[in-house]
Amino acid sequence: MSVSRRRLxxxxxxxVEGFSTxxxxxxxxxxxxxxxxxxxxxxxxxxYGGQVFKHTGDGCLAEFASAVSAVAWAxxxxxxxxxxxxxxxxxxxxxxxxxxxxxxxxxxxRFGEGVNLAARVQTLSPPGGIAxxxxxxxxxxxxxxxxxxxxxxxxxxxxxxxxxxxxxDPKVIGxxxxxxxxxxxxxxxxxxxxxxxxNLSGDAARDGFVxxxxxxxxxxxxxxxxxxxxxxxxxxxxxxxxxxxxxxxAELGVRYILDGSVRFAGERMRVTLGLVDGAxxxxxxxERVDAQTxxxxxxxxxxxxxxxxxxxxxxxxxxxxRSSRKAPENLAAYDLVLRALPHLWAHRRxxxxxxxxxxxxxxxxxxxxxxxLAIGAWARAQQIAYNWSADLAAERAAGRALIERAAGLIDDxxxxxxxxxxxxxxxxxxxxxADALIxxxxxxxxxxAWAWTRRGFSRxxxxxxxxxxxxxxxxxxxxxxxxxxxxxxxxxGLAHFACGRPREALAWTRRALAEKPGMTWxxxxxxxxxxAASDLAGARDALARFTAGRPDMxxxxxxxxxxxxxxxxxxxxxxxxxAAGLPDxxxxxxxxxxx
Length: 595
Description:
Blueprint: E1 5-16, H1 19-25, H2 27-44, E2 50-55, E3 59-64, H3 67-82, E4 94-105, E5 110-111, H4 113-122, E6 130-133, H5 134-140, E7 149-155, E8 162-168, E9 191-194, E10 198-199, H6 207-222, E11 228-229, H7 232-236, H8 245-252, E12 256-265, E13 268-277, E14 283-292, H9 296-324, H10 333-345, H11 352-365, H12 370-385, H13 392-406, H14 414-428, H15 431-444, H16 449-461, H17 468-478, H18 486-498, H19 502-515, H20 523-532, H21 536-547, H22 555-561, H23 567-579, H24 586-594
Parallel strand pairs: 4-6, 9-11, 9-12, 10-12
Antiparallel strand pairs: 1-3, 1-4, 2-3, 4-5, 6-8, 7-8, 12-13, 13-14
Helix pairs in contact: 1-2, 6-9, 9-10, 10-11, 10-12, 11-12, 12-13, 12-14, 13-14, 14-15, 14-16, 15-16, 16-17, 16-18, 17-18, 18-19, 19-20, 20-21, 20-23
């Protein structure tokens, strides 16, 4: 009879993603691949102090003496699996979960809370990646260069408590941390306090719901790296106290204050919100939300999402205006980048170089400013994508250099991650690598509208346009007043064109042009979409508008600028430009390449 004992251990659970489907499609190849995977596990796990104590058909459970060793082995294993030669057989995608928990140990097995938790955490792992619990994450502090994204508290099947989970995905490459990540400096970055909302119903029983709503909004905004959020307990002292907003802002040391009230009528509720500039006491944004209270958690999530999405552009615009009021001699790198953003958003040929000049000035002051490096790369990518430069090779080289310098400096900044992803996508067409950065940005801040817009473009570029619409729609819903929202309209147009709906594509692109007067490059889209819709007169007119500042424009140059699109979409797009009258020199370019 075996003797059992208890101990704290690092437990790893793994299994194959989509195993049943793979077996149904090709049983022999799948079982062969799983057998080779098991051999790799047994051959390597001992090198990291691990021991497999149970096989589960398409996976296993293992114990490690150290959580750090368990993560190190898991990362090494996943990288090896990701690089496996396809000629050897089927490539499997494995999910791995690692926890630190209490286990009951017998001679040849393990039972208990730790084992159950590891199996549940494993289900949250990205395919080919790792998911870990809070205990493991705390053990890793300063002991690994892997980047884990906090995906928040999750409900796990069969467990009563919610658990906070972090995930790692090996597709996220080239951005390992080189330095400790610091919080925004309240002296230079925007900061906000969320005051307790007023319960206007007079029913004290509703206080818990209202407090929970404020808690959810505060937690949601706390995940936004673009501004610092004061802890809820600090703001809670102002509940039921009539204090001037400017006084509260001064006492808490914040620039902005979010205030709100909730009114109930049966099962309906109305939430009124207002954002106040702490220095002047002036309200700079307001919104009203009507909802049902029957599912209070869904209502809280909806309002938190709306507030987070709306405050992004509102606070950013307020910060830009604040920076513009500063005397030139007081400008620092942060303010220079803020001033660059409107020129970047303008999408006009003469303004983009102004954005580049301001970012370069910021980098002269602070060469290691990750956000400036990423935004500078984005600006140079626009020079390429919109045929604004006569020397695309030089722009690519400059953009690549900035992307390389940004590696390790933008790990927790969704805006910088999105900017870098855009640059990587437009400069080199590396959509998969860009997707990894976008996923990281959304892992940090799921309400980042720009990241959703770029995810929509990546889906379109990679040949999955039907998946793009939901991304663009979410970006528009999150940030309807964003000065960059017209870019989602451009994306909707391209996605419709990719799906073979040129008339719908035209409607969205014209809406973008109406939203942002002065842009000319989208007439390239209008020319192509009009030609596809058999409106050759409209196509020729649009092409003339596009080429007015580009007299040497040809089909080959258009093709070179749009290397980010998949080949079939790019060829169909340029065919439309040729039908509109653009000189077709693509054959000459192909002959030159062949020679």
